[in-house]
């Protein structure tokens, strides 16, 4: 991370000074008003704010807690060790990114002076523009919405190794800088930056930490969804498994577990999503479109399209919003 930003994040905070002076526990009053340790966004965000950052509190064990917001942790320097959901050990090294939804619990082992992490406190509505930029029915859209929703979806967290992912690092540094400097346009800049961040993460699916069991499943499911997005026209489960040296029943089980759909259903979703995009963004005929996405039977295509979108292809195209 840029040294100027590190110098803004490194100084000991008043909370950390109390700890260094002998305080033996985290001051919960800074984070919550409830008996259970659920960190409250209202304690950390000013009224009307959708996003804020704060350096991670060092020098002390941060006890098991949850958040009523989405948290994004970026490791600027050094490392921190997190215990997720009471059982999964996640070590963040410089350049790592950890996204946590509202269901996850975590505790954090004591960090040293040069272990500098920044916590993004983000309300779910902040992601509206980012998700619009990524695009509905996109593999990353579905993946991140599932992972970061308040319901139990694909996973309660995402852990990326991104030290060498320059575009991602630049975007995160830009967000940190605009918030620290209280830029008047910070909200707009950071909503766009978040959208660009998510778009870039699509190219770094391999950066998901495969060493953690839960993350290995995420990586495999993400890879399958990305394969479907690229090869929706003629891809097969057998071909994907051959490329990834996996058994078909393993991939089928994980897809069903994490998406509630089998490979064939996801492949059909990919075809129909591409058809919808072509209807909205091109003047190709419906016949040309259903052939281009891999359908040969017009009646079958029309029936499945209507089931998914509630409109015929003609009605869907007529209802598109002007650009």
Automatic annotation (TrEMBL):
UniProt keyword Transcription regulation present: yes
Coiled-coil parts of chain: none
Single GO MF annotation: sequence-specific DNA binding
Domain of life assignment: Bacteria
InterPro entries named among the record's database cross-references: AraC-bd, Homeodomain-like_sf, HTH_AraC, RmlC-like_jellyroll, RmlC_Cupin_sf
Gene3D superfamilies cross-referenced by the UniProt entry: Homeodomain-like, Jelly Rolls
Glycoprotein is among the record's keywords: no
One Pfam family recorded for the sequence: AraC_binding
Residue ranges of every copy of the HTH araC/xylS-type domain listed in the record: 222-319
Keyword vocabulary terms for this entry: DNA-binding, Transcription, Transcription regulation
Designated name of the protein: YesN/AraC family two-component response regulator
Annotated organism of origin: Catenibacillus scindens
